[in-house]
Amino acid sequence: MAGKRGPRLDLESGRVDMTHGSGGRAMARLVDEVFIAAFDNPLLARKNDQAIFEVPAGRMVMTTDGYVVSPLFFPGGDIGSLAVHGTINDLAMGGARPLHLSAAFILEEGFPLRDLRRIAASMAKAARDAGLAIVTGDTKVVERGKGDGVFVCTTGIGVVPPWVVAPSGERARPGDVVIVSGSLGDHGVAILSSREGLSFETSIESDTAPLHRLVARMVEVVPDIHVLRDPTRGGLSATLNEIAGQSGVGMRIEERAIPIRTEVAAACELLGIDPLHLANEGKLVAVCAPADADRLLAAMRGDPRGRDAAIIGEIVEDSHGFVQIETSFGGTRVLDWLVGEALPRIC
User: Fold this and answer.
1) What is the pTM of this model?
2) In whole angstroms, what is the distance from residue 6 CA to residue 28 CA?
3) I want to staple 96 with a disulfide (CB 3.0 to 4.6 A). Which of 6, 112, 158, 311 is the partner?
4) Contact status, residue 110 vs residue 150, Cβ threshold 8 Å
5) Which of 277, 79, 119, 283 is nearest to 189 (CA)?
6) Coil, strand, or helix at residue 95?
7) Measured between alpha carbons, how far is 159 from 55 in angstroms, rounded to an integer?
8) Other beta carbons less than 10 A from residue 303's beta carbon
9) pLDDT digits over 140-192, tens only?
């Protein structure tokens, strides 16, 4: 069956070729039959090179990110849902309510159209489930051997309500409490097991998930959360060290208080990996005043994304900015930055 732009794409056995990035009819078919079909919404349907929309009152927040995860499909998610969730979460960590997303695709010649449609469908579902839309984007094609299937770049905008004090990495103060929203290390172990073909006694899935609704519940109860951060690449250790450096403080963390699933801990022990260095894609770290801690923790535990939330430590005065962790054996060690790249292409 032919449309106005010629024969329809073979979305079952066809592959990306260089004409799909040429700006001609083939590219128009790809955009129509894969991306517009999946992301369908009034702003995108206008087919302009931009999206024009009204914004509510508040401070605008913008973020952008690139996704090169390998493999593209993994237990609990794929590059498509990960790209949507990751960008939503970066907005949410500024206390923002996400409004719209854009997406750019770098496709390698020869990439199966079936897989591209699957990724687009996953992105569309993730956006719909989060209550927002992908309203503009771009597609480029590179020669075979000069890419790795597909890379996705996403940009998001959101608004911080006027009554919310925007969280920021330099606002941690001595005496503040450190809270995590749930178990750590799931995403990193899921990617590693899928990439290396490892199997464990129980299935370990990525925790990739949007956190904006959890954050909305949190700022409703505590409008002045000092810091919010999602511990992605580099895991909890990188996140805590970043905050310590930005704020010029130290931290004292209790290892026993950090929630880590038994399966993840066992896998990490087997592989010789510290779970505190592993990426997470559906968890957050919050730093708040001690007077707000119990109220914030209760609000987090009342949301499905925060039901395992726990207080794990406190901010202390330390001109060196050390993050110290009290081990389960009663000793103390410095929780330092990850050296090198323990697990590349994690997101």
Assistant:
1) 0.95
2) 10
3) 158
4) no
5) 277
6) coil
7) 8
8) 17
9) 999 999 999 999 999 999 999 999 999 999 999 999 999 999 999 999 999 98
Residue 312, amino acid: I
Q: Which of 329, 324, 196 is nearest to 267 (CA)?
A: 196
> Count of CB atoms within 10 A of residue 284's CB?
26
Q: What is the pLDDT of residues 278-322, one digit of tens each?
A: 999 999 999 999 999 999 999 999 999 999 999 999 999 999 999
Amino acid of residue 234 = G
Q: Which residues contact 197 (CB under 8 A, 6 or more apart)?
A: none
Peptide bond into 71 cis (omega under 30): yes
Helices 293-301 and 212-221 pack at an angle, to 10 degrees, of 140
Give the residue from 38, 142, 33 showing the smallest Cα distance to 81: 38
Is the per-residue pLDDT at 3 higher than 60? Answer: no
With contact defined as beta carbons under 8 Å apart, do 239 and 247 qualify?
Answer: no
- Secondary structure class of 217 (helix, strand, coil): helix
Three-state DSSP class for 180?
A: strand
CA dihedral sign of residues 26, 29, 34, 36: positive
Angle, CA 305 vertex, CA 121 and CA 278 arms, to 5°: 80
Report the alpha-carbon distance of residue 73 to residue 150 in Å, rounded: 12
Distances (CA, A) of 36 to 26, 30, 124, 133, 134: 14, 9, 10, 11, 10
Is residue 81 a contact partner of residue 127, using CB atoms and an 8 Å limit?
Answer: no
Please give the DSSP secondary-structure letter assigned to residue 62: E
| Residue 334 in tokens | 């410095």
| Whole-angstrom distance, CA of residue 249 vs CA of residue 230 | 19
